[in-house]
Amino acid sequence: MLEQHQIQRLLDIAFVGCQQGRTGLARRVIDGLDLLLEDSLELEICRAMSFYTVNDFGRAREILETAADKFAHDPMCITHLALVDILEGETAKARERLDGVIAQNKDAEAVQLASSLVAEHF
Question: Given phi > 0 = left and psi -120 to 50 = alpha, else beta, which region is 17?
Answer without folding.
Answer: alpha
